[in-house]
């Protein structure tokens, strides 16, 4: 499996350098879009974003419903910066929010947030 | 509905004299109960001691099946043995608690002489120490057996926590407990209220969040996750850890005051311990 992943990633050209690292992560490079895959992994991981704890997201299992389903995000957030701001510090939009303040409380790093935002924006 | 949370939060965080003048504990309790009644109009008050199973129909079926052969039963039996077995000095728990073993509804209470909230586990250990016995640990182990026996014998008693007016420190302890309940903490920045008030009934992953009303009626509780019975303060510790907050000490001032506040909120509900949960 590792070998075929590597092959796929090599085929992806520009992503070839990253793919070397990603190939060891099962499934990561398999869909060929490894940056988005990385964002997805961060979003789904219980130790990292754990967005599924509260949001229904396509492709994720046993989602909670404390927050709204994350669908049609580009239509609803034409401005990527607004989406990033929501994820970075949800208390700006709603001071009583029950969402984790991922950036402000450094639950995720700035880089990780960028990846998560890319993934969520693709939904 | 949101207004009630906001006013409760505001009350909790406003601090100072004006707050105590504005909202008596009885007003707090009325607001608390009304909030849940509005949120779960179909749930009768006497269901709240059943925790999440008051609002989770699927979970309830499993739970009812488990309760037919209660996993906490052996702990009640060994608790009874502990209760009856004399200490090295020949005395027993009964000498400390003449009304025992059905004494759970007397706790927590404000102890004017000590100037603190006294909980049942604390009182049990004081009895042990007074009789030259080592105190028991507060989260795991044999204290749960003793508590299970006392809880079982106390089933059906009504919670009736008082905040005596002849000692202003009692109200202070209550207010501290209330503040604790509403204060966000930990890296994930949640308060107890974020989950068990604001989002009661919602799902975090597959777990439905229970209302705080009734949270204190059924301890100790057998959790399948623990594989044994544990104390209320062990549960507090778990919820604090889940939000990546440093837990406080079991039976330390913070958790005792929190228990005082939460138990006051459940005044009028009937004790139904020991409990079983996932």
Describe this structure in words.
- Chain B: Substrate binds at residue 235.
- Chain B: Heme c 1 binds at residues 96, 127.
- Chain B: It is found in: Periplasm.
- Chain B: Residues 1-23 form the signal peptide.
- Chain B: It comes from Sedimenticola thiotaurini.
- The complex is a heterodimer of chains A (123) and B (278).
- Chain A contains six helices and no strands.
- Chain A has helices at residues 2-11, 16-22, 34-44, 73-76, 80-88, 110-121.
- Mean pLDDT of chain A is 80; it is low at 1-32.
- Chain B has twelve helices and seven strands.
- Helix content of chain B is 47%, strand content 7%.
- Chain B has 278 residues and is mainly α.
- In chain B, the strands form three sheets. A three-stranded mixed sheet of chain B has the order 6-5-7. In chain B, strands 1-2 form a two-stranded antiparallel ribbon. In chain B, strands 3-4 form a two-stranded antiparallel sheet.
- Chain B folds into two domains: 1-47, no CATH class; 69-191 and 226-278, Orthogonal Bundle (Cytochrome Bc1 Complex, Chain D, domain 2), CATH 1.10.760.10.
- The chains are: A mainly alpha (123), B mainly alpha (278).
- Chain A binds chain B through residues 52-54, 62-66, 96, 98, 100-101, 105-107, and chain B through 2, 5-6, 9, 187-190, 194-195, 198-199, 202-207, 209.
Helix and strand arrangement:
The complex is a heterodimer of chains A (123) and B (278).
Chain A (H helix, E strand, L loop, with lengths): L1 H10 L4 H7 L11 H11 L28 H4 L3 H9 L21 H12 L2
Chain B lengths: L1 H13 L1 H7 L2 H15 L17 H12 L4 H12 L8 H4 L12 E3 L4 E3 L1 H11 L12 H11 L14 H15 L9 H7 L4 E2 L2 E2 L12 E3 L4 E3 L1 H11 L10 H13 L9 E3 L1
Parallel strand pairs in B: 5-7
Antiparallel strand pairs in B: 1-2, 3-4, 5-6
């Amino acid at each position: 499996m590792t070998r075929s992943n590597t092959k796929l990633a090599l085929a992806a050209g520009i992503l070839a350098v990253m793919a070397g690292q990603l190939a060891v992560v099962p499934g990561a490079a398999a869909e060929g879009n490894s940056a988005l895959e990385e964002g997805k992994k961060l979003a789904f991981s219980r130790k990292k974003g754990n967005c599924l704890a509260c949001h229904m997201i396509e492709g994720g299992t046993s989602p909670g419903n404390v927050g709204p389903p994350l669908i049609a995000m580009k239509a609803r957030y034409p401005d990527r910066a607004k989406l990033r701001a929501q994820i970075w510090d949800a208390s700006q939009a709603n001071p009583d929010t029950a969402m984790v303040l991922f950036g402000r409380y450094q639950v995720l790093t700035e880089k990780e947030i960028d990846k998560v935002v890319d993934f969520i924006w693709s939904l | 509905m949101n207004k009630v949370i906001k006013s409760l939060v505001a009350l909790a965080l406003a601090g100072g004299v004006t707050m105590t003048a504005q909202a008596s504990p009885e007003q707090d309790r009325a607001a608390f109960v009304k909030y849940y009644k509005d949120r779960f109009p179909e749930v009768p008050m006497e269901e709240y001691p059943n925790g999440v199973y008051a609002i989770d129909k699927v979970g309830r079926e499993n739970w009812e099946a488990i309760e037919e052969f209660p996993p906490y039963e052996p702990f009640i039996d060994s608790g009874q043995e502990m209760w009856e077995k004399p200490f090295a000095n020949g005395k027993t728990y009964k000498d400390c608690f003449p009304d025992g073993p059905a004494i759970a509804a007397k706790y927590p209470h404000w102890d004017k002489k000590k100037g603190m909230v006294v909980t049942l586990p604390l009182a049990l250990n004081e009895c042990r120490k007074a009789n030259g016995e080592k105190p028991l640990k507060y989260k795991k182990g044999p204290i749960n057996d003793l508590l299970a026996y006392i809880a079982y014998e106390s089933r059906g008693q009504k919670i009736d926590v008082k905040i005596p007016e002849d000692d202003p420190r009692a109200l202070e302890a209550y207010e501290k407990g209330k503040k604790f309940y509403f204060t966000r903490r930990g890296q994930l920045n949640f308060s107890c209220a974020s989950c068990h008030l604001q989002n009661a009934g919602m799902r975090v992953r597959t777990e439905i969040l229970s209302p705080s009303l009734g949270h204190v009626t059924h301890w100790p509780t057998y959790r399948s996750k623990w594989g044994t019975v544990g104390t209320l303060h062990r549960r507090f510790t778990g919820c604090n850890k889940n939000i990546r907050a440093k837990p406080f000490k079991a039976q330390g001032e913070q958790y005792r005051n929190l228990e005082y506040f939460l138990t006051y909120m459940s005044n009028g509900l009937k004790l139904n311990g020991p409990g079983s949960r996932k």
